[in-house]
């Protein structure tokens, strides 16, 4: 019993190491140009060893890497609704600013996956739709609470919010001085009757630098 | 003389064919995973033959592919200023909607190039800065003409416009039903005292479908 628990723990650690290695390799070379054998080398295993833990091969490794990103977002958003959920999006964005590698990896993978022949194409389409629905739902709840401006359509506001989020990440990765979290907060506020509260004390201030938040 | 003119024309045609092939190969596999020999095969030449026309190799081919996209944008924007320039951005976006392959290629390349070690990293950073400056300049001209809303900061409006443009392209490539041109027009209008004129008759109408344009 103890032995099998130990085995399980060891296997979970191994999986964790492999996912870390997959993350690093994908981030460096992109998904298309990466191989399972590269990932195996990175973690000091054989290709067969990696496939023992991830029978689905490179696609399964991609899933694991993406799930890890989504899990964190789900933790932040759990149990929230309406404007509370929207404020959560700003918090997630603030975290992202400290995780350049993760943002870069996700940007590269989601761009590659726009190719309809890409093995993860459907997965990314579904993911975008799932996120768009969740954000639209939050805007609909905000509307029911009387928190939306007159005439704002929840689905349209959600797509606009997602587009702004993705676009700001790309500009930021390309060296532009943008405060993503504050810019997204300001963008969400254009749809709300009452603005989301500003950044907490200690968050990066934007007063003396140009950001896309000014109106 | 006639012979050398003929040679020149033939060489220009060859270059054109090679750029087309590079476009197709990059669009399919991304920049990192593509090779000059693949591009040569596509156009029925040897690798040495391609390198005769593009001595800089894969990087030079990438430059040529990107320049072609930018040339078209420059044609549309030439001689325009202020809100006329901003209206040009909407026109470019409308053209893009008919060029899925080009938008996809650019999205993949610019995502790959966010890696500081990518050979085209500096080029993409510079390109983003050049575009941001040009758009900020147009907003500044609009402000001088009294065409901006009170308190709009040209540079911030420019970055916001670029982020929205890039983000909408990604959502569109990921299967979301967004009318990019109309969404960008609506976004630019949030900064203007007088809205840009709506879509010309014959342009896709958005009345009965959700787009990020609604407010």
From TrEMBL, chains A, B:
Keywords, comma-separated and alphabetical: DNA-binding, Transcription, Transcription regulation
Residue ranges the UniProt entry marks as DNA-binding: 35-54
InterPro entries, per the entry: Homeodomain-like_sf, HTH_TetR, Tet_transcr_reg_TetR-rel_C_sf
A Pfam family: TetR_N
Domain HTH tetR-type: residue ranges: 12-72
Signal peptide segment: none
Identification of the protein by name: TetR family transcriptional regulator
């Amino acid at each position: 019993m103890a032995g099998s628990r130990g085995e399980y723990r060891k296997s979970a650690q191994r999986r964790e190491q492999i996912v870390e290695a997959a993350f690093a390799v994908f981030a460096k070379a992109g998904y298309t140009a990466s191989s399972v054998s590269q990932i195996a080398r990175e973690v000091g295993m054989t290709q067969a060893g990696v496939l023992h833990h991830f029978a689905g091969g490179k696609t399964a490794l991609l899933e694991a890497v993406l799930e890890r990103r989504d899990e964190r977002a789900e933790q932040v958003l759990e149990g929230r609704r309406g404007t509370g959920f929207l404020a959560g999006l700003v918090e997630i964005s603030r975290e992202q600013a400290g995780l350049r590698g993760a943002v870069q990896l996700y940007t590269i993978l989601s761009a590659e996956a726009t190719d309809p022949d890409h093995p993860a194409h459907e997965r990314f389409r579904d993911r975008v739709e799932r996120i768009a629905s969740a954000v639209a739902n939050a805007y609909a709840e905000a509307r029911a609470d009387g928190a939306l401006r007159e005439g704002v359509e929840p689905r349209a506001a959600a797509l606009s919010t997602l587009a702004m989020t993705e676009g700001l990440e790309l500009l930021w990765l390309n060296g532009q001085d943008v405060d993503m979290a504050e810019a997204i907060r300001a963008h969400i506020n254009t749809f709300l009757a009452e603005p989301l509260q500003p950044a907490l004390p200690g968050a990066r201030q934007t007063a003396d630098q140009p950001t896309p938040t000014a109106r």
